[in-house]
Amino acid sequence: MESTFGLILYMGFFFALMYFLLVRPQKKKTKQLNELRSSVRSGDTVVTIGGIVGKVLNVKEDDFVLEVGAARTKLTFKKWAISAVEKSETEVVDPAVAE
Questions:
Q1: Domain enclosing residue 59, as ranges
Q2: Which of 28, 35, 40, 54 lies in the 20 to 30 Å Cα band around 87?
Q3: How far apart (Å, rounded) are the C-alpha atoms in residues 81 and 88?
Q4: Structurally, how many domains does the chain consist of?
Q5: pLDDT tens for residues 70-95?
Q6: What is the pTM for the complete model shown?
Q7: Cβ within 8 Å of residue 65, ≥6 positions away
Q8: Residue 9 falls within a domain, yes or no?
Q9: Residue 99: inside a domain
Q10: Which residues face 77 on adjacent strands?
């Protein structure tokens, strides 16, 4: 009986440890990234997950229009494709660094 209780306590400890080391930080990072993506406004400079850098022209509910290159090509992306946002010349908001 005591060995079963000890085993359950031992397993419970490791489940709690895994939760606090893996699950909780990932949820926090996902929440920060979703807040970053929802705060994108026209005029911001963004970096997509593919590495494309450009200026946001128009933001809709689920997508945005990005102006890139010297030819000022306009591309439409989904909001989930944003990996970093530059709000101004000096401030870069990157969720991987912003911890």
A1: 2-93
A2: 28
A3: 20
A4: 1
A5: 999 999 999 999 999 987 554 555 55
A6: 0.66
A7: 56, 57, 58, 59, 74, 75, 76
A8: yes
A9: no
A10: 64
